[in-house]
Amino acid sequence: MAARRDIQDERHPELVWGARTDVGHARPHNEDSYADVAPLFVVCDGMGGHEAGEVASAIAVTVIADEAPISLDDTALGAAVEAANQAIIGAWSQGVGKEGMGCTATAVQIFGDKMAVAHVGDSRCYLLRAGQIVRITHDHSYVEELVDAGEITADEARVHPARSIITRALGSDPEMYADHFTLDVEKGDRIILCSDGLSSMIADEAIEDVALSCPTPQNCADALVQAALDAGGFDNVTVVVVDVARDAVAERHARQMMRGAFGVLLGMVALLIAAFIGFSLFVGKSWFVGSENGEVAIYKGIHGDFFGMNLYELTERTGVVVSDLPDATQKSLEEGIATASEDAARATVESYRSQIGLERQKAADTEEAASSATHDDGANAAPTSASPTSPATTTSAAPASDSSEGAGAGVNATSVGADAPAAEEGGE
Amino acid sequence: MIDLVLFIGRILLVAALYLFLFAVMRTGVGLVRGQRKDAAIWCLDVDKGPKGLRGLHVDMLGPVVVGRSPNADVVINEPFVSARHACFTLQGPALMVEDMGSTNGTLVNGRVIEEPVTLRDGDDVQVGDVVMRVSRR
User: Fold this and answer.
1) Burial (0-12, 13-18, 19+ Cβ within 10 Å), A353
2) Is A1 a residue whose pLDDT tops 80?
3) Would you call A215 and B118 a contact, using CB atoms and an 8 Å cutoff?
4) Please, which pLDDT band fits residue A376 given cuts at 50, 70 and 90?
């Protein structure tokens, strides 16, 4: 027999498997069938003699493979085994095979970290985990019932004269049902499906020993079949070995984590973008009045920066000199005076301009009044009538006041005090 | 424009920092989870050899290199042992031993091995004067 390699399927990278079947030393033909179509693995042990047992087991394997569910569902897998039962009964009633033909069936389906098992008869499924073998199926056989009843031991069951009597099989009772259940599997687990040609030849401990000394599933299947043959090989031997090579749970966990992290990142970015857009809309609609190189300016945006990025842009320099404004206004200009709109900003600047204009005029008026007071010291005209209203007078009066400056500071001071109310009246 | 680039750079830096933290945490969690001592199926016990090595117990959780080199996992400081003499590896559930081209060879149950050998419970592996007994948990 040519050495076979382990099989792996791209769609099921977590599984590696190998299988072997052998006719044995005692029988003329092989009535066993198996299927290894990942993630489904089936072993069927036919019975009923020549052109019956192998027909039944072949039908069972085909039907189970066709009817097997596409996701983890042990009930559906059990239903597939029951469908195989109906198919075998239907086949011999139509003349395919022989009446009375039948078979056992042990089917497993591995999806990620779970394994669905459905079985009928005495073909077994073992799970090798952390160096220990566990039989996970319960034979439907007479000797198994005796073992359960405590009448014989498992070792005695293997050599019991009635060991080949099975209490449930495919192909006889239309009402037959399959045992089914779901198990957890993890990385490093080795699943062994075998016909009774292996389990009746060597003890479970021997299976464990062999399975633990085989690096690969195909090795293991070959070695187990060889061990059964060496122990006598009185029956057909079929062994399917499946290794769970990768940790499907950890991989799924990692994928979920990555997806979660990606989602969080995406959410953060979306939030950031939304915040940025909202903020920039807000910034784009706000205006403020501030100072730019000692000059009052109108800015679009808000006064401040974010991560070193200025949140405003200069729209207009107004030419109004900041130092002409009152101290309090200068201070608030440095911090920026927020306004509702561009027009409001302009209005604010205009108010500053007129305020400065008034200040200047007031100062000029005061000085003129002071200078006129020094000039007409003796005349002492009435302050109200003398206060000029036209700007022309103010400008012409300014040089005059300059010349009068040196005349007498003391007089000037007193006259300013006297004229102040008058100037204010004029302004109003 | 430069402001915008700087701003994006800063945001990216913060994001990278968080990703790094995340990766560190994940690795840490993975390391803690990976420390399962009971997972070892096979172990090696030194039966015969120099005093310092006798009674040495090694749980097989990964490849174990035996040799004279201080970098080996089991250091046997004897003249007849090569720097990297033999290597024990886990292949699936099976324990294998391989001679790494040593001068004086590796013996399993008294026989020199030519190629990687699968070990069974109770096998003796001899490197130089040191005999290691393979056992299963």
Assistant:
1) middle
2) no
3) yes
4) low
Percentage of chain A exceeding pLDDT 90 = 36
Edge to edge, what strands does the sheet with A337-339 contain?
Answer: A309-321, A295-306, A287-292, A337-339
Buried/exposed A127-161: b ≥16 CB within 10 Å, e otherwise: bbbebebeebbebbbbbbebbeeeebeeeebbebe
A307–B7 C-beta distance less than 8 A: yes
Nearest to B118 among A213, A257, A306 (CB): A213
Strand order in the sheet with B74-75: B74-75, B64-67, B86-91, B94-99, B117-118
B55-95 residue pLDDT tens? 889 888 889 999 999 999 999 888 889 999 999 998 888 89
Separation between Cα atoms, residue A189 and residue A128, nearest integer Å:
6
CB A44 within 8 A of CB A104: yes
b/e for B71-84, b at 16 or more Cβ within 10 A? ebebbbebeebbeb
Average pLDDT, chain A: 82
Query: pTM of the predicted model, to two decimals?
Result: 0.65
User: What is the Cα gyration radius of chain B?
Assistant: 23
ipTM over 0.95: no
